[in-house]
Amino acid sequence: MLDINNIHSTVLRVDHLNIGHDGRDLVRDISFELAPGECVLLAGPNGTGKTTLLRALAAEGVVLIPTNIPKVKGFTVESFVRTGCYRESDWRGRVSKEVERRMEEALKMLGIEELRKRDISTLSDGEFQKACLATGLTRKAEVLLLDEPTAHLDVENRIDVLRTLREVARKTGTAVLFSSHDLHDALQVADRVFALTRDGRFLASAGTDVLRAAFPALANLL
Predict the structure, then answer these.
(1) Phi first, then psi: what are they for 116, rounded to 5°?
(2) Which residues are 14's β-sheet partners?
(3) pLDDT of 28
(4) CB count in 10 Å sphere of residue 71
(5) Coil, helix or strand at residue 76
(6) Minimum mean pLDDT among 2-6, 19-23, 108-112, 130-134: which range?
(7) How many CB atoms lie within 10 A of CB 14?
(8) For residues 160 and 190, is the Cβ–Cβ distance under 8 A?
(9) Interhelix angle for 155-172 vs 125-138, to 10°?
(10) Which end of the chain is more exposed for a tag (fewer CB within 10 A), N or C?
(11) What angle do CA 15, 20, 23 make, to 5 degrees?
């Protein structure tokens, strides 16, 4: 586990943020910091604002990988990653050699370099999730936000993707904040836990106590 107390730099700081929709606050007074290389689980029951929070955090230097990105036929893994880097492309959609170099490094790190010419529609869900991660790394994200990256994955792929998130954080120094309902598996890779409760509280801890507050019915199992 990463020793956050010994890390003095911060890649994302949030102070007294309120989130909600349709004129109604879901959670108020959200404050936290993320350190380089930190992997953090965002948990909470459905409807407590996890996706809303991640969308609110998405900004310059912060890359959000949403859930259920469509695997559109006709895009290879390479072209999919390049498309994700559109802000660094020219008017003809071409990216620089530097972007290409970063893509090569990302594909190699994630172990999917042999898939570069594969149509993304033919990838397994686990392989496609890694292609999405490659896009974030190629964009030099200081912070990666992922909304339910293990949704719809089988047990083996779920564990593989979660371990990959932790490896990415450690090797690149990118801070990773991901939401998940797979609490048991996610806790194995998380340095800390952020939790949203049904009564609109934001809680943060290095242990599982915040999960007991967010999921009272599971208190004896956490």
Answers:
(1) -55, -35
(2) 32
(3) 93
(4) 17
(5) strand
(6) 2-6
(7) 14
(8) no
(9) 10
(10) N
(11) 120
Query: Phi and psi dihedrals of 24, rounded to 5?
Result: -120, 130
pTM (2 d.p.): 0.90
For 53-70, write each residue's pLDDT tens digit.
999 999 777 999 998 899
Q: Where are the domains of the chain?
A: 1-61+142-222, 71-140
Kind of pairing between the strands at 175-179 and 39-43: parallel
Query: CATH: 3.40.50.300, 3.30.565.10, 2.40.440.10, 3.40.190.10. Which one for 1-61+142-222?
Result: 3.40.50.300
